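Form 7-S
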Amino acid sequence: MKILRIVPMFRRDREVEAYIPQLSGFSENEELELLHRIERAIPRKMWAFVENSIPAEYSGVVVRQDGARERLRALREAHKEIIGFNLKVEIGVKELLEYCGAVAVDRLYSQFQQLIALLRVYSGENVRTIALSVNSLDEFHALRDEGFDYFIGDFYTKTVLSDNAPAERLNPVRANQLALLAEVGSWKETETDQDLRKMSAIIERDVALTLNILKLSNTAAFGGRAQINNVYDAIVRVGTANLKRWAISHLTHAATDKKTPEIARVALLRAKFMENLAGQMQRGKWLAFFAGLASVTGVMLGISQEAALDELNAPPQVRDALQYKGEIGALYGIAEAYINGNMDQLNLYLTGSNLADTLYIAYLNAEMWVSDLLRQMGQ
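Output:
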């Protein structure tokens, strides 16, 4: 099975240092071609985690434990920086660290503590340490206290709500933006005049949304000569496809006001990835997109997922999907396992499916879409 994942690597301050492509199941030539495509989609990348090739233009390569000695020799000859991955203690950590610029250690690795002890003894001040599989904020804080420099995992997508305190109430502006997306998401294949008037009423409750849609509708892109001064006429001119994109854009802006933009990126990536998979399977593309976005909206807004679904007025199919029920629920399971790197779970979902070797295409297209959208929004 061909796997491409692109994961963020965080510094100690939880700022993203780089987006890291992880490849598996590709030939050397396929890896090189794919890495060039990734370069165009994700320009912030610094390291490549690759299985077969050692491209000259990349500053670091993970040394896999099943071929560490061979990789060490090849990288030494090429004078490349080395990153060690899941290193077995018996392969010679001391020797390896003489050539390392950084070492990535999986928190779930059975010899984690022994390897940390060896790193403290043998690694120099210039060797950076990367903690993998950091899946909660508590783990992040503990590993940061251990002295790790960088962190990879889905810890940043976890929201912490006190059991003794009520969830944060949404302010009216943010509630309007969620209601806007919920209304667009509930539309069928063709909207009705009643749909457009409900949309108009939601937008008119928010001065910023009103000004924005009027400005958008009067741009040259929509080709209208007559000046539009009311919301209803504006949304008719803009059209439903553009309204969906506009609503998504505003939700993302709202969510990233106080939260890290990385959360918004995860939400949009899940949503577009699921939409792409739904397109391949000829399933409900908008429901898939909506479910992917809703799966992270609670974290984006600092409230529980149930509260976020209520605010979104999520349809029953979306609620079922987030419980892994139905066809959209299966797509959600695939997207979640793929992005989080849970290969065992992914294989269970893909049994009997024809998606296995096309996942990376849907994923890379989603990455490019998200990068373009956030770039346009100035993120």
